[in-house]
Amino acid sequence: MPNITIRRMAKGDLEVVCTIEKEVFQDPWSLNAFKTDLSNSMAWPMVAEFENKVVGYSNIYIVAGEVQIGNFAVAPGFRNRGVGKKMMNEIFRKAEENNCRSIFLEVRESNKPAMELYKAFGFIPAGKRKDYYSHPRENAIIMIKDL
């Protein structure tokens, strides 16, 4: 899907972002969590747009030479169309821009499509957080990519 643009998330995006968040995740982030990231100097929340419509987003945190992916989602109707790849490329660009040594994230143990996307970008499983998620209770797999 050409014509996907990535930009910093703005306050005007929050309603759409929260709608996608509720469609995609069983335990969605709150509006306040997204709002807080807009003013967090260590956060770089981004949206992916197609034809001026937000179709994906991610919240990353850049701390001590590492990038943590806190949230990553693509709207259901736009999956497998290059949106996730474009956002991941932007995350790698931000990591390079900030001289980061690694990128890491947690993903639900049952979320095989997300794990496959991350593996395609060179992330490897590096551990497990028992009962990390609560709705429903589930382990998280920690994945890391050294840069």
Comma- or semicolon-separated keywords:
147 residues, alpha+beta, Aminopeptidase, seven-stranded mixed beta sheet, 4 helices, globular
Question: How is this structure best described in words?
Answer:
This protein has 147 residues and is an alpha+beta fold. It has one domain (4-146): Gcn5-related N-acetyltransferase (GNAT) (Aminopeptidase, 3-Layer(aba) Sandwich). Helix content is 29%, strand content 41%. The protein contains four helices and seven strands, in the order E-H-H-E-E-E-H-E-H-E-E. Strands 1-2-3-4-5-7-6 form a seven-stranded mixed beta sheet, with helices on both faces. The longest helix is centred in the middle third of the chain and has 15 residues, at 83-97. The radius of gyration is 14 Å and the shape is globular. The mean pLDDT is 94.
Briefly, what is this?
This protein has 147 residues and is an alpha+beta fold. The protein has helices spanning 14-24, 31-38, 83-97, 112-120; strands spanning 4-8, 43-50, 53-63, 66-74, 102-108, 124-134, 137-146. The chain is 29% helix and 41% strand.
Strand order of the largest sheet: 1-2-3-4-5-7-6
Q: Give the structural class.
A: alpha+beta
Distance between the termini: 27 Å
Q: What's the structural domain tally?
A: 1
What's the β-strand tally? 7
Number of helices: 4
The portion of residues assigned to helices is 25-40%
Strand content: 35-45%
Q: Low-confidence parts lasting 5 or more residues at pLDDT below 50? A: none
Order of helices and strands: EHHEEEHEHEE
